[in-house]
Amino acid sequence: MPRASTRAPFPFLVADAQHRPSDDPIFALNAEAQRRARAGESVVNATLGALMQDDGMLAVMPCVSEVLRAVEPRRAAAYAPIAGEPGFLSAVIGDLFGNGELASWSLAAATPGGTGALHHAIVNFLEPGDALLTTEFHWGPYQTLAEHTRRRVETFRMFGRDARFDADAFHGAVQRQIATQKRALILLNSPCHNPTGYSLDSAEWDEVVRVVRAAAERAPVALLVDHAYAKFGGARANEWVEHVAPLVGEALLLVAWTASKSFTQYGARVGALVAVHPDADERRRVTNALSFSCRGTWSNCNHAGMLAISSLLNDATLRARADRERDVLRAVLDERVRAFNAAASGAGLAYPRYEGGFFVSVFTPAPEKTAARMRELGVFVVPISGAVRVALCSTPARDVPRLVQALAYGLEAAGK
Fold first, then answer.
1. Domain residues for 102?
2. pLDDT tens readout for residues 202-243
3. Which terminus of the chain, N or C, has less C-beta within 10 A?
4. The dihedral sign for the CA sequence 217, 221, 222, 224
């Protein structure tokens, strides 16, 4: 057996990789909550972004599991086309835009979940060193994806003094990016924003369109709608489509679509990046670029997952069943949203408009201290800049009063 050398080793990792964190902080908090629960402690775990039943079990849609099992084994085992199964790609486009004009102008590439869609957008619509633009409150892995691909993240103030989307801050940030990097990739996660739960209303979408349209007169602008939680939005969850439609052709419209939340299949890693443009030559170039990126990263995606989701989207009977099963889960989540709004408003908590979705954020001047004090009470939330993120998707309605009491305690302690 060879002896281990005592000589000081060379650094094998490149400089950028030598000091990266080993674990996502959300998963680390979730692990701590689970350890304390296994030890017999009464715990409220509002950290992980997966929809859980009131009994603590992961919520799944039975029809999805059945269709996955029904996929013909040899088809599932075969390589999928590099850019994705054609029936899956067309089904995703139809899910977003139906059979209208936007659908006829759309192309798509399969990705491992919404994260893969974000990756493809960043590497194809920003130069190395450029920055994507998003709201000050945003999903943490936006930063990870940007850094890993040699890009950056710039943000703008999300809420104005009226607690609504700050269109003026958005306008200023877009104009600054156009002036400095001569292009813009804008990521907006709505409906059901992660981490705040905020959904843009019609007037706010109109403001977004106004700002993007003005910027697109000066430089190439891509607007990406992160669609991850949209199926759990309210009755107006699809209104964004009619509002952004007039932008198509002036700006590039992108959509990060995923089955993770909408079909409760987080582990299947089935997603797509959809791009919309009326010019056929532009669509051909984008199609080629996305296919090249697929080959250069994951090569191809989960074939069985794509075939199953295609069936669920294309077969009218299966789609209706999936919609019914999702409606049951949405009702569970909506009960928690109502319970939180009632208790939180009574406790005087400061948080954005919250109409539906997996998360809500409660503002605090000391997020880490607030979350730490809450953990003393056995209640786990995720500290983020300026707030703590509360995953109601994993919090039974019966635990909401305890959750809100812990939030009030944590906020009071943080203010001292």
1. 80-314
2. 999 999 999 999 999 999 999 999 999 999 987 788 899 999
3. N
4. negative
Tokens of 241: 């489509």
Structural domain tally of the chain? 2
Task: Tell me if the bond preceding 191 is cis, omega within 30° of 0.
Answer: yes
The share of the chain scoring above pLDDT 90, in percent, equals 89
Angle between helices 62-70 and 303-314 (to 10 degrees): 120
Which residues contact residue 287 at a Cβ distance below 8 angstroms, ignoring those fewer than 6 apart?
Answer: 83, 107, 109
Domain of 29: which CATH number? 3.90.1150.10
The torsion of the CA quartet 179, 180, 183, 184, rounded to 10 degrees, works out to -100
DSSP state of 52: B
What pLDDT digit, counting tens, does each position of 163-209 carry? Answer: 999 999 999 999 999 999 999 999 999 999 999 999 999 999 999 99
CB 117 within 8 A of CB 271: yes
Instruction: Establish if 93 belongs to a structural domain.
Output: yes
**Which of 406, 383, 401, 378 shows the shortest CA–CA distance to 44?**
378
**pLDDT bucket at 138, cuts 50 / 70 / 90:** very high
Assign 3-state DSSP to the chain and report helix, strand, coil percentages, each to 5: 50, 15, 35
DSSP class per residue in 9-41: PP--S-GGGTT--SS-HHHHHHHHHHHHHHTT-
CA distances from 172 to 77, 168, 176, 352, 386 (A): 50, 6, 6, 22, 21
d(CA 59, CA 362): 25
Distance CA 330, CA 360 (A): 16
The residue ranges of DSSP E strands in 364-410, in sequence order, are 379-380, 382-384, 387-391
The answer to whether the beta carbons of residues 190 and 240 sit under 8 Å apart is: yes
278 and 330, same domain (yes or no)? no
Tens-place pLDDT, residues 330-344:
999 999 999 999 999
Strands (E) in 43-82, as ranges, are: 44-45
Q: What is the per-residue pLDDT across 5-24, written as a single tens digit (0 to 9) for each?
A: 666 667 889 988 888 877 67
131-135 and 152-156 strand pairing: parallel
Q: What is the pLDDT of residues 280-309, one digit of tens each?
A: 999 999 999 999 999 999 999 999 999 999
Say if residue 303 is in the same domain as residue 332.
Answer: no
